[in-house]
Amino acid sequence: MLEIIINPAAGNGRAKVIAQEIEAYLKEKGIAFEMLFTTEPDHATQLAREAAGRGAETVIAVGGDGTITEVARGLVHTGTALGIIPAGTGNDFIKAVGIPRDWRSAIDFILTHPARPVNTGTMNDSFFMNVSGAGFDVMVLDYSIEAKKHCSGIWPYFYGIIRAIKNYKPFRMRVEIGEDTVIERDCMLCSVANGKYFGGGIPIAKQADVTDGLLDILVVDAVPRWKIPFYLPSIMLGTLPRRKPAHLYKASSCRLSSPGMRLNMDGEILPVEDASFAIETDALRVHW
């Protein structure tokens, strides 16, 4: 039996509508299932953990990247597989693993593709699945949250980029990568990625691989505000690592430190002045 966890608020209520269509579709196909609806933050993690405890083979998350992360947090290291039906505003993780965007295609994908392992990450022992970062991208996320009420996909983040440029200030960052690389300078942003995309489809770590056992760490030196628009095409196309201010590293661990740092971790903004990241190999099974 499939256990399906739905965040009814995801995608400005889109997930709730999709849930009704999923119910009719699975009944038509004669597939046994149970639907569980979240009612508050972190409820999806609790529901997923309980489902794994009951011995569920697969738990399906219906929602955006936040819901997917919550469900994955409850399934990591349990052996229960994660299925994903995207119904949020950004849906970034599915782009890294090739899961269809359409809900019906996503169900068929889950039913026909066996679960395979993927890597996940930790930040100060907290779970993350996709991309974390500090600096300019956090400013973008701040400004995009309000816009998500009115549009979806990349457009809220495009609005956030424009606002972030206007209010941009560089920040002092210490980055420790692996055992022997230390960077300490003014930065525009620092991104730590397991997946490839954030911000509704921006390829911040185009070369990242959820099976290679490594984090992709992108450090971008501070640039004058007037120069930022000239780097936007590179950000949107995933070619920023080729530009002069950018430095790309791969490692199984890293540490970011900055006074007053605010960290974007899978779309959630956290005040963390010292963040230690590590990759966990084959920690989660996903239908992909």
Main features:
single chain, 288 residues, alpha+beta, 11-stranded antiparallel β-sheet, 4-stranded parallel β-sheet, 8 helices, 15 strands
Describe this structure in words.
With about 290 residues, the protein is of the alpha+beta class. The chain has eight helices and 15 strands. The protein has helices at about 15-30, 45-55, 65-75, 95, 105-110, 135-145, 155-165, 230-235, and strands spanning about 1-5, 35, 60-65, 80-85, 115-125, 125-130, 130-135, 170-175, 180-195, 215-220, 245-250, 255, 260-265, 270, 275-285. The longest helix is centred in the first third of the chain and has 16 residues, at about 15-30.
Write the layout of secondary structure elements.
Elements lengths: L1 E5 L7 H16 L3 E5 L5 H11 L4 E6 L1 H11 L5 E6 L6 H5 L5 H10 L2 E9 L2 E3 L2 E5 H12 L7 H13 L3 E7 L3 E13 L21 E7 L6 H10 L8 E6 L1 E5 L4 E4 L2 E4 L2 E14 L1
Parallel strand pairs: 1-2, 1-3, 3-4
Antiparallel strand pairs: 5-6, 5-15, 7-9, 7-13, 8-9, 8-12, 9-10, 10-11, 12-15, 13-14
| DSSP strand count | 15
Q: What's the average pLDDT? A: 94
- What is the helix/strand order? EHEHEHEHHEEEHHEEEHEEEEE
- From the structure provided, what is the oligomeric state, counting identical versus distinct chains? single chain
SS class: alpha+beta
Strand content: 25-35%
What sort of overall outline do the alpha carbons produce when their principal axes are compared? globular
How many H/I helices?
8
Low-confidence stretches: none
How can the largest sheet be summarized? Answer: 11 strands, antiparallel
Q: Rounded to an integer, what's the Rg over CA atoms?
A: 19 Å
In whole angstroms, how far apart are the ends?
A: 19 Å
Percent of residues in helical segments?
25-40%
